[in-house]
Amino acid sequence: MAWNEPGGGNKDPWSGKGGGEEGPPDLDEVVRKLQERLGGLFGGKQPPGSGSGGGGFGGGGRLSTKVVGVILGVLLVIWLATGIYIVEPAERGVVMRFGHYVDTTGPGPHWHLPMPIERVIKVNVDEISTLTHKAAMLTQDENIVEVELTVQSRIQDAADYLFQDQDPERTLNDATVTVLRVVIGQSKLDYVMTEGRGAVAVTIKERIQNLLDRYKTGLLVTSVNMQPAKPPEQVKAAFDDAIKAREDKERLENQAEAYANEVLPDARGKAARIVADAKAYRDQVIAESEGEASRFTAILAEYAKAPQVTRQRLYLETMEDVLGNNGKVLLDVQEGGNSLLYLPIDQLMKQHQKTQSQTVPSSTAPSASTAIPSDQSPPRRVVDRDRRSR
Predict the structure, then answer these.
(1) Domain count, the chain
(2) What is the pLDDT of residue 252?
C-alpha cells in the first residue's frame, strides 16, 4: 500500500513523523553550521539571530585582516621562489626585464624577479655547430676548381646571439660563401691545390670571424677545414699528369741534395787535410831555414876568430859527406906493408847494372869483373885524413 493512500496514516518519509523515521536535513541549517565552523576556524564571530537567513559568507563569516596578510605573505614567498634558476656549466643565462636585456649570468644558481617582470633564456655556448659548403669557383689564373669547406663554430656572446642579429646561422653561411670566393679568386690554382691549402684555410677563418664580429652575431669560429681542391672532371687527367711531374721533380731534387750532402763533406775534408799538410810543410821549411841561418851565423862567428882552422874543418866535413855516400872503396897501401885488398864485388855489380840500365852499353867500357894484376899496386890517390889533419 502506498504511503499516501487513504486510511494508511501519515507515512511521509520526509516529514519526520510516523514510523519513527527522521526527515531529510534542512539545507539552510547545513549552510548555517558550515558558516559557524568556518567562522570559528578563522576567528570570526556568529551574530545572534543570524539563523538560516545568513545565506553566504557575509557578516561574521568574513576573514580577518591578519589571516589575509598571512595568506598573501605565503603567496609572495612562493612567487619569489619561482625566480630561482640554475645555469649549467655549458650554458649562459640571459636575463630579460619586460622584454629588455638586463644581464648575462654564468654557471651556478641564480635568482631573478619572477614572471611577468623578468624571465631567463638559457643558451648553450659549448655546443659546436658545423657548416659545410662545396662549390666550383674561379681562381686568379682563370682556372676552375672545386673546393669543399667545413666551418665549425660556437656561441661566444649569448646576448649578441639572441638580440643583435636576426639569424646568426644564415649570416655565418653567407659570410663563409663570400670569403671563400674572394680568397680563392685571389689565389692561383697551383697554390690552392698544393702547399697553400693550409694558408688559405687560415686566411678564410680570419676573414669569416672579422665579418661575424662586424655583424655582432655572437659566434666564434673554432676551426676551418679545407678539403683538397679538385679540378673539374673534364681536365682531371691532365692535372694528374702535372702533379706527377711535379712530384718527380721534387724526388730528383731530393736525390741530388742527398748526393751533394754526401760528397761535399768528403771534399771539404780532403781540402782541409791538404791545407793542413801545406801549412806543416811551410812550418818545416821555415824552421829548417831558420836553423841553417842560425848555424851559418855561428860558423861565421867562429870563422872570424880562426879562419884557417874553420876553412880546413869545413873542407873535411864536406869531403866526409861526399865520400861517405860513394860506393867505391879506396885503400892507402904503405911501402913494404902487407895489406889485404878487398873489393866489394856485390856493390860493384849493382852499380854496373844500374849504370847499364840508364845508359847504352859501350864496347870499350871496362867490365866490373875485371881483376887488378897482383904485381901492380893501386894508385895512392887518397890522402890520409888523419895525416892531413896533422
Answers:
(1) 2
(2) 92
Measured CA to CA in angstroms, residue 207 lies from 17, 86, 200, 204 at distances of 101, 37, 11, 5
pLDDT at 58: 45
User: Residue 216's domain spans which residues?
Assistant: 129-231
Residue 278 CA from chain centroid, whole number? 50
> In which region does residue 296 sit, left (phi positive, over 0), alpha (psi from -120 to 50) or beta (all else)?
alpha
pLDDT digits (tens, 9 = 90+) for 240-279: 787 788 888 989 999 999 998 989 988 999 999 999 999 9
So what's the pLDDT on residue 56? 43
Q: How far apart are CA 129 and CA 367, in angstroms?
A: 114
Give backbone dihedrals phi and psi of 219, rounded to 5 degrees, phi first.
-100, 150
Give the end of a domain, one of 231, 257, 281.
231
Residue 225 main-chain phi, psi, to 5 deg: -110, 120
Return the number of other C-beta atoms located less than 10 Å from residue 325's C-beta: 7
**Angle, CA 387 vertex, CA 383 and CA 390 arms, to 5°:** 140
Spacing of C-alpha 251 from chain mean position:
26
pLDDT tens-place string over residues 24-73: 556 667 667 766 665 555 555 544 444 444 444 444 445 567 777 778 88
219-234: pLDDT as tens digits: 999 988 888 888 777 7
Is residue 171 within 8 Å of 212, Cβ to Cβ?
Answer: yes
Domain boundary among 182, 197, 231: 231
Pick from 147, 152, 148: which is nearest to 169 by CA? 152
pLDDT band for position 322 (50/70/90)? confident
- Asked if 149 contacts 204 with a C-beta cutoff of 8 angstroms, the reply is yes
Written as nine digits, the cell of 276 is 793542413
Q: How far is the C-alpha of 283 from the C-alpha of 272, rounded, in Å? A: 16
Measured CA distances, 312 to 255, 306, 308, 325 (Å): 73, 10, 6, 21
If asked whether residues 225 and 151 sit together in one domain, one would say: yes
Q: Which long-range contacts (CB under 8 A, 24 or more apart) does 164-167 make?
A: 164/215, 164/216, 164/217, 164/218, 165/215, 165/216, 165/217, 165/218
- Could you give the residue ranges of the DSSP H alpha helices within the chain? 27-41, 65-81, 158-163, 168-185, 189-193, 197-214, 236-305, 307-324, 345-358, 385-389
